[in-house]
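Renewal narrative, Specific Aim 1. Our central claim is that a sequence can be written position by position from structural information alone. The example that follows is taken directly from our test logs and has not been curated for this report. It begins with the structure tokens describing the chain, in the order in which they were read.
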């Protein structure tokens, strides 16, 4: 724990940068470490004073959310999970968290249980609630026990601000949509400060706000098996992009990769895909949805991934399967710019 805290404090001490773009406009940039990843804020065409003030409020909001929603460090979500485990009702007066729990219930229903924030115990069992990766498989009996318990967001009831659960095996982990929700909060702050052009990147969950001068913001998509960029994409104003990949958090045992993306129905990490990237247009909770919807598409069996994307209303998607085949929507194929050498025979356009 001490090692993690020292790293956290070290990486937050980053000096904001104000550079001049080719057309003479200022480009402000500030980076920090929140949500277990690098946060990169770029604000275009504003004074350093305004950009600094807005970026500091955004980062303060992110840090507060991180502490509020962290499932295994002391905070509100930790206390909620503790009460559920002890089968004790919990007085929950934080309307923001109530709303997030209720949307988690709706996402679970919408994705046929593929997106299930109630499986925190499974995530922990596989070692992804730790800073140190596992070196061996968890006990298969323990996995089966948690799968058979069927923890679900539907097990949670909130009546008159009193939260209770009918299933003691529920442990809420909002890691699958906290970053996307944070993007939506950043959008609100940018609006409050009347900032017209910015790019907010939370470890690959990105919001494009306005443009960079007369050009759209351009973002990169990582190759899931090497640090090179697989492709780049222009992001229209107000659009969000999200990626789920088996390279983000994983461990290797017996020469097999086990990622943090766990199928709630089987209890095991998904092995049929390497990455899923989607774009979401502006709309209610669009940043959150760009974060959420990558998971059910990733988790769904190969033959049904496109059907899941269509059911969720995702028109721009890029799916890299475990055999390196690429499934891409026609809408995204029209704007993608490949950077790595891609075998066209392995690309299927829908």
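The sequence written for that structure reads:
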């Amino acid at each position: 724990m001490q090692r993690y805290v020292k790293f956290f404090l070290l990486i937050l001490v980053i000096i904001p940068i104000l550079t001049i773009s080719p057309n003479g406009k200022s480009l402000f940039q500030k980076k920090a470490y929140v949500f277990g990843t690098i946060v990169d804020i770029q604000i275009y065409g504003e004074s350093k004073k305004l950009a600094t003030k807005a970026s500091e409020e955004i980062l303060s909001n992110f840090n507060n959310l991180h502490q509020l929603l962290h499932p295994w460090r002391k905070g509100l979500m930790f206390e909620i999970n503790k009460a559920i485990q002890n089968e004790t009702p919990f007085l929950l007066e934080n309307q923001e968290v109530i709303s997030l729990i209720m949307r988690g219930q709706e996402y679970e229903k919408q994705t046929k249980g593929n997106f299930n924030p109630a499986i925190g115990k499974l995530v922990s069992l596989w070692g992804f609630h730790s800073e140190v990766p596992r070196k061996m498989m968890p006990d298969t009996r323990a996995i089966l026990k948690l799968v058979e318990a069927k923890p679900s967001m539907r097990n949670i009831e909130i009546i008159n601000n009193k939260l209770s659960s009918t299933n003691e095996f529920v442990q809420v982990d909002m890691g699958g949509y906290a970053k996307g929700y944070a993007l939506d909060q950043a959008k609100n702050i940018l609006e409050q400060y009347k900032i017209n052009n910015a790019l907010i990147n939370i470890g690959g969950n990105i919001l494009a706000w306005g443009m960079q001068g007369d050009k759209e913001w351009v973002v990169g998509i990582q190759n899931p098996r090497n640090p090179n960029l697989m492709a780049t994409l222009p992001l229209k104003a107000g659009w969000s992009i999200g990626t789920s990949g088996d390279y983000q958090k994983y461990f290797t045992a017996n020469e097999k990769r086990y990622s943090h993306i766990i199928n709630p129905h089987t209890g095991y990490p998904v092995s049929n895909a390497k990455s899923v990237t989607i774009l979401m247009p502006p709309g209610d909770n669009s940043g959150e949805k760009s974060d959420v919807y990558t998971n059910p598409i990733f988790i769904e069996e190969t033959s049904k991934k496109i059907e899941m994307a269509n059911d969720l209303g995702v028109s721009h998607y890029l799916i890299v399967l475990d055999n390196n085949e690429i499934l891409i929507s026609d809408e995204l194929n029209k704007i993608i710019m490949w950077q790595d050498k891609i075998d066209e025979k392995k690309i299927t356009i829908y």
